[in-house]
Structure formats: structure tokens, C-alpha cells
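In the previous chapter we treated chains in isolation. Here, by contrast, the input contains eight separate entities that must be folded as one system, with a combined length of 1168 residues.
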Amino acid sequence: MEFIVYLAGQIHDDWRDKLIELVKARELPFTFVSPQTNHDRSDNIGEDILGNQPSNLYKDDAASSINNFRTEVLLQKADIVIALFGDQYRQWNTAMDVSTAISMNKPTIIIRPESLIHPLKELSNKANVTVDTVEQALDVLAYIFE
Amino acid sequence: MEFIVYLAGQIHDDWRDKLIELVKARELPFTFVSPQTNHDRSDNIGEDILGNQPSNLYKDDAASSINNFRTEVLLQKADIVIALFGDQYRQWNTAMDVSTAISMNKPTIIIRPESLIHPLKELSNKANVTVDTVEQALDVLAYIFE
Amino acid sequence: MEFIVYLAGQIHDDWRDKLIELVKARELPFTFVSPQTNHDRSDNIGEDILGNQPSNLYKDDAASSINNFRTEVLLQKADIVIALFGDQYRQWNTAMDVSTAISMNKPTIIIRPESLIHPLKELSNKANVTVDTVEQALDVLAYIFE
Amino acid sequence: MEFIVYLAGQIHDDWRDKLIELVKARELPFTFVSPQTNHDRSDNIGEDILGNQPSNLYKDDAASSINNFRTEVLLQKADIVIALFGDQYRQWNTAMDVSTAISMNKPTIIIRPESLIHPLKELSNKANVTVDTVEQALDVLAYIFE
Amino acid sequence: MEFIVYLAGQIHDDWRDKLIELVKARELPFTFVSPQTNHDRSDNIGEDILGNQPSNLYKDDAASSINNFRTEVLLQKADIVIALFGDQYRQWNTAMDVSTAISMNKPTIIIRPESLIHPLKELSNKANVTVDTVEQALDVLAYIFE
Amino acid sequence: MEFIVYLAGQIHDDWRDKLIELVKARELPFTFVSPQTNHDRSDNIGEDILGNQPSNLYKDDAASSINNFRTEVLLQKADIVIALFGDQYRQWNTAMDVSTAISMNKPTIIIRPESLIHPLKELSNKANVTVDTVEQALDVLAYIFE
Amino acid sequence: MEFIVYLAGQIHDDWRDKLIELVKARELPFTFVSPQTNHDRSDNIGEDILGNQPSNLYKDDAASSINNFRTEVLLQKADIVIALFGDQYRQWNTAMDVSTAISMNKPTIIIRPESLIHPLKELSNKANVTVDTVEQALDVLAYIFE
Amino acid sequence: MEFIVYLAGQIHDDWRDKLIELVKARELPFTFVSPQTNHDRSDNIGEDILGNQPSNLYKDDAASSINNFRTEVLLQKADIVIALFGDQYRQWNTAMDVSTAISMNKPTIIIRPESLIHPLKELSNKANVTVDTVEQALDVLAYIFE
């Protein structure tokens, strides 16, 4: 039995690589997928494929339609969703991905720093599990196989 | 035929009252519901009902469970969702409400200032309509009856 | 017991008025809703509400988002869908409305002239009933109460 | 991870072969399925299997029931739908396939020439992404693996 | 609180009238709907509305499409389904209505004579309650209000 | 706007009457429904309607089919579920009703004494809100209207 | 791509073996599953596993619960359903399996002799395709791969 | 064709090992998954991963969120659910797992001693099959392949 895990959220550090390393070290049967983590590519993908748009509004709309396409394809394949919220950005699409996953009955783990306990409280309450660190998220994943 | 509209989002100004006024003036058959708009009551509702909690983490969890209960009851009754994002707060529960509504196939309108076009692009792309002002949202509502 | 009927399709003649007249004459408990039947208003609604768009592509996208919002609101309220295809236009949004209605398990009647039997064959096969005239559609509606 | 892509739409040119070539060249893990692309066989399949029918109406109904059976089997297996609308035909079953796919939450790409922007506007607005060329559709597919 | 009850099954005696009488006598808040109980009208409705068909096969298909339309409209409104199987006919559409109702999570009661225990065993096992008489079905309905 | 509340759980004291009294005093627009609260009638309903059964196993099966019918009818009408677990009984059907309600996305409140915190922990975690007293459950209900 | 086909219906001749032979001869990638085709074993399975029951009613209920369990497991795995109705029996569980499959959106083929056109008309109208012979059903299956 | 079976229920004896042994002996293609069967680990998993909690209430909530995460992941993968209720514990989470499985349309077998016939009657009535022993459950599983 194999599980596909969608790694939503922050794209400005290497938390995904870290988690994947740890999972490999423990030889757990998880496959990971994620959104585009190259921020510039993600912002420009609309114009990269469809050509110049008349303004930032339309550039953003074109990019988001392709990002949403990608997310929807991968999220539907996923058995589990893990989302990491970082300190700095608004990350509304992370909140969107988590909420969508929960509505699709995908078991979901949120990773967030203590500073975000309050603003994330309603979302945390809806997710299955909320943890502080990547290591704890891994422990929850690994618990499936004990 | 009557429609129930859930007004998600910002609770720090009177945009809901403004919209309701405008709808009354046009005599349109909409009933409006919304989250708790008293910020302190919303933050304290867990302790108000369940008593003191051991720390802010648990206070927030208690409050959010009751806020989510309320939202879920009202969202399921709603035919339409309108969400206003303001400039200042992270409003992840607004993003959560919008995403949940879209997953429930509730027709959804987002209202947001120009400054939020970029961070909200993926969510806007998933909503039915995104507008800049409360008046425009009203025009979209009114269009149903033309 | 009351039934709401969504009247999809052609907006270039008065078939809706004709059907509604006939229903009134028979005193049947149906309420009718429909898309925007003013063609110009339907094409311009995006710019009418959101202001000028940079080109026809964006004007069309803005209009369609609001037309789709309206359709979605009314289709979800509907117990039954009737769609009339006329001889002249491509009417892909009529095909879209019918298919969406069928996917939502809304009992559906198609009205189409003989000339369209062939190009509409797959859609007709999926709808509950296909008829040639408005009067026949009315007979099917009335049969519910016999 | 493998993805199945249903290629709906125009059957009068070789756009499917072209797309499949390009995907092979890039070694992307997609499997493609499609409707019957032999137009005559598609029109005659009812009589080919069930024998002569009393008139074209019944011939078309017999054929469409078997075409719809095939489409339904393959569409349910598909992870992604791409639909190409050409300039010449009414292609209402293409519009039907796209709408059905969207109702089934299949991520969907529409390919259409500029001349069809206006008549397809509501359908484009509901699909995830609309592009002008087969190459652009391929770029969107490939983006899933970046 | 009112409940709508769909009365599926045998149309060759007056069991529906009998049940409705008994419900009125007890002043219970149920509204009853049912299929066309005039057998000839049910068999001829296709030709009555659509005109002569080339053979019995097509006459039956035309009639059944309109009967299925009616059933689907009324079944979707129903809160409860009661189906009576009689001794004499094959009544496959009764079995179809019951199975469809169960798949739609409509609470379902089957009424059948002892002689049908064996051939109906799988269907009885899936329904909520199976009884021998109309009076017992009424007792089950009435139990909701105790 | 009116809400229907299903009151699941313990039938050996008058907690339902108490809650209904309190709601009336506050003039809140809730209608309450519940399982059969007469324990003997609930145990005997199968034999009361269907006649003697060959042993307790069959008596219980007959009763439970009718109790489940009633619950299913009322639960589907309910907007909200409140379940009270008491100290003494196993109440597996209460656990069943709560789990079913949660699976149907009915917003759910559990009332349980402190002594049951541990054995009910997984169920409490899935419900929206868990409280200790009927008064607290009422406060949660009333919060919807603030 | 492999497809699983559930073969519902008549168990008193060897139509399943015949179909499976033909499929093998054409080297088509279908796997077939079916109900218990040993009539006695199917009737006795309840008592075979659970021991003697107090009467035929209970024997039938025990058997049907295990037959339904088997059908449900295999039907959920199936991509396609083919059901053959024979001349002689009432076969209400065949009608049940077909209706359940249709409600689960499983593409469905009915095979029936001409003598059953009339009594099966509503069910035929709901299935995707109705044919007269096993060979025709095979042709429909094979059409998926053309 | 392989089937995944979730083994819910009692964790204080070795019934799972016994069942798995018997299945291996018969060379049946079932894969088994189950909840955490180490009772202490299950009770402590919240604190083991998230650290000390302020009281037993919070310790239990933390543990249950991770246990529910595990159950949800595995239950969604399962084709079949078997639940064993033992004599001694309240096992409300077993009742919860069974009810959730039934709501998810997972074919379900309950194993329970005679002493539990009465308190489990509503749940038994909703499950597909109820048996007394592990061997009988195995016979029901094996029947799928006859």
C-alpha cells in the first residue's frame, strides 16, 4: 500500500526537501507532490504559456488558472495533505488548498509556528492534526504504519 | 423565491450594514446571515461557554470550534456567499469560508481592494465573480432578478 | 407542492412567454426562471458592472462569469430543466446548461426542431425526454399531475 | 504516478496525434483516450450493432447511446480532460463532454481558435484553462511535472 | 414538519387510496405522490405526446422516457418511499424505483405478500422495513410522530 | 429562518424537555425531533407492528429496523444534531447517530459528563463542539443568532 | 488500462462463460466478476454460515444479507455492468443490481429477449444501452477500444 | 483483484492475528489494516508527538486527533470493514468507525458475542452482515471468491 501526500504551503524555504529526506531515511512508502515551488515561475506561468496580458490583473488571472489546474490534478490524486504556514506571507492559497482538501475528505495536517496559533485557529480546528514542526508531521505520518 | 446570502469576511467595518441597506432600498428578496462580527465575543466564545482554558492555544481552539459550528450551520442554509477581504488582516478563516463554499458548489462573489489582487489570485480564479466594491457585488446579486 | 423550472436555451424569440402563458391557462403550480434573455445586456453585463475591459476576450470573460453566477444560483433552485435549441446559433452555453443539469440529476426536457436531430443526438440521449414543440414540453410537465 | 487524459472534441483533423507525438517527445507519463474519431463509424455504430432502425431519428438514438456508453466509461477513468473546438461544426457533444467533465470535477483545458472566443465564453469561464493551440495545452500538461 | 411519501408499485388495485384514507383518519402530516396509476395512459403516454412510433419497441421507449421523467421529479421531492409488490406482475420498474430510492438514501418501506418473500429477499434486505400489509406500513409511518 | 435539531442519545431522564423549555424561554426558532424515548415501546416496536418473532434476536432486528427508519427520516430533516451520553448505558446507537450525522455534514454537539471524556475522545474530536451540560449546548445554539 | 465488468442477472444458463470466451478470443482487457451463480449455494449461504434459521423468512434474510454484501463489494470495484434478463424468472435482484449500478453512475448494458421489451421498458430507458444478444453486448464492449 | 479490509474494534485480544492466519491458510487476496492495537501507545500518541498537555482532557484530545487521522487514511483505502465488539469495553470509537464506514458505503461485517445482540441491534441492522465468530466473518469474506 502506497500513499500520495500533497505538500501545500510555503515555498520560500526547503521544508519539503527536509521532510522527504526524513521519510526516505525511515523507508516509509510515501510519494510526495506539491505546487510549483519556484515563485517567479508560478507568478509568470500565465504569460509564459499564453503570452503577454494587458495588465497585472490579467497576468495574475492567467497564472492562477494554470496553478489551480495543477493543484486540482495533484490534490485529487493525494491520499493525505500536509500544509505548512510560514510567518511572513498571507498565503491565502495555502488556506484555500487546506480547506478544499478538508472538503474533499482528505486527511490533513497543518504545520505552523506558535505565532500563527491565533489567526489560524478556525482552520486548525477543521484539520485533523496541527503540529509545530516538520518532524512532528513526519511522526504523524509514520504512525499510520505502526 | 427567496435567497439566503452568507456574508463572510472582514468584521472591522460596517460593509454588511451598507450592503443590507442597499438591498432593502432596491426591495430585493435576500436574507443575510454572517459570522459573529463582534471580534471580542468571537475570540472569547470558547471560554464564555466552556469556562477558562489552560492557555491561549486551548482558548483559541475552544472558540474556533464554536465559531466553526455557527459558520457550518449558516453556510449550509446559504444559497450564495459573498466574502469581503480587507487590507489589514490575514483573514485565513475568510479564505477558508470561501473555499468551503466553493467546494459545496455555493455560487460565490469576492470583494477585495486592488492591493489584494495578487495575493488573492488563486482564490479569485476559483470564485464565480470578483469585484472591487460592495456596490458591484450588489449589482451582481440584482442581476439574478433582471 | 410547487416546482421550479429553469428555461435554458434560445433567447431570440418568445418561447418562454408562450410556455408560461400555457401553464397559467392550465393553472399548473410551476414557477419559471431563466437566463438573461436580453442579448445585449447579457453580452455587456461584465463591463456594465466591472467597467471597461482591455479587449473583447476580457469583456467576454467578465460577462460570462456573471452570467454563470446567475445560472448557477437559479439552476440549483430548479426542480426541472427545459432547454430549447433553435436553428440558428451555436448555443454552446445551452448545451452546457443541459449537461450540467443532467449531471446534477435535474430531470431535463429538450425541445429542438427536426433539423437538429443529428447534431444533438448525444445530448438528447442523455436528457430524460426530447420533444419537437413547446406544447409537447408542456404536456410532459402536465403529466406530473395526472 | 500516471495520468489518463480524455481528448474530447473535433474529429476532423489529426490534433490528437500531434499532441500525443509531442507528449512522447517530452517523455511525459500521460495515457490518452478519446471518442470514436472515425465519423462514419460513430454515426453508424447503432445500426452496425443493433441492426437497421426505422428512420434517421432512431438510427441516431441507437448510435448516440453507444457513443455515450463509450464516453462515460473513458471519462470516468480520466484524470484530466482536454477539448478542442474547431471552426466548422456545432459540436454540441463536445460542449456536453466538457460540461460533464467539469461537473465531475475533472480538471479541464479547452483549446479553441480566436473566432470562437465569444460563443464559447461561458464554457471557457467554467473550464480551468482555455488556450489557443495544442502546444499551449501541452505546456499546461507539462507544468504538472515541473 | 411535513413529509412527502412516494407510493411506488402495483397500480392494479386501490391500495394507495386505502392508505391515504387511513392517514387522513389519523390526521398525520403526510403528502402522497405516485406514478401514473392509469395503466393504459402509462403505456400510451409516449405516443399521446410525441405521436405514432414505428413499432412497439419505440412506443415503449417513448412512454418509458416520460414515465421516468415523472418518477424522477417526484422521487426527488419525496422524504420517504413505500412500495407495494403484488402477486401477479413482474413489476421491474417497482424494483427499479425502490433501488433508486435506496441509493438516494430515501428511507424505504416494502409491502409484499408472503408468497413473494423469496424472490424479493435481496431487495427486502436493503430496504429499511418490509411489511405484509398496508396497515403495517401505516403503523411504521405513524411511529415517526410518537 | 428556522432550524430543526435532532436530539440523539440518552432516553432515561428528561434532558430533552429541559432543553426545549430553555429554548422556549429564550424564544429561539428551533424545532426539536428525537428518537422514540419510551424505552419499552422502542424495544417492542418490531413485534408491536410485525407480530411475534421467533426469538430475541429477531425481535431486536425487527425493532431496530423500524427505529432506524424513524431516525433516518428525522435525521435527514435535521439541520443540527445534539447528542447526550449518560453515565450508565453503552448507547452504541447514540454513537451511531452522531457518526452518521457527522458523515452527513450535520453540525453536531456532544453533551457528556466528565467521566466519559476518555471513552468518547475520538467521537468528541470529530464532533464540532463537546460540552458538559445542557445549558452549555443551549448557549452554543443561541450563539447562531447573536 | 484494464476494466472490471460485473455480470448481473440470470444464473440458469452459461451466458457468462460464453461472453468470457468471446472476450478472450478477441484479447480484450476485461476482467469479469459476478454474483454467486450456484442457485442452491446462493439460497443456502445464510444457513451455511450462520446455522439454522427459524423459518424460510429468516433463512432468506440471512442469505440475502451475505449475497448483498458480495454484490456490493464487487459492484463498487466494477467499471461497467452488464445484466442479462431471461424469460422465466422474476429476477428482482437483477433489476435491483441494474438500478443500483445506474445510481452509482456505472455505465450499464442490458441484454434481454424481445418478449421482455415491454415489462423492462423503464429500466431499459435508464440503462446506457439495451441489446438482444450476448454478442451485441460484446460488440458494445469492444467499441471502447476502437 | 485485491481487497483491502479494515479491522475495526477490540484491541485486547489477538482476533486480528487469528483472522489473518486463516486468510493466509486459504490463500485469499486480502490485505488487512487496522487501528493502533497497542492501547498505551494509542492513549499516549498525542503527548508522544506534541508533548505534555495541561490535563487528561487535552491529552485525550491530542491523542484522538492523531488516531482519527490514522483511521481516516486507512478507512478511505479500505474496500471492506470488519468490526469486532468484545464483552468488556464501551468501544464507542468502534461504533463510530462502523457507522462512518456504512455512511461511506463500505460493505461492513460486525462480529459480536450473543450477549451484545440487544445493545448493538440498531448498528447490526445497518451493517451488511452480523456474525458471532471470526470464522464466520472469514466465511463471508471467502464467499466473494466462490
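Residues 3-41+79-143 of chain B form a domain with the Rossmann fold fold (CATH 3.40.50.450). Chain B has a mean pLDDT of 96. Compare these points with the single-chain example from earlier in the chapter.
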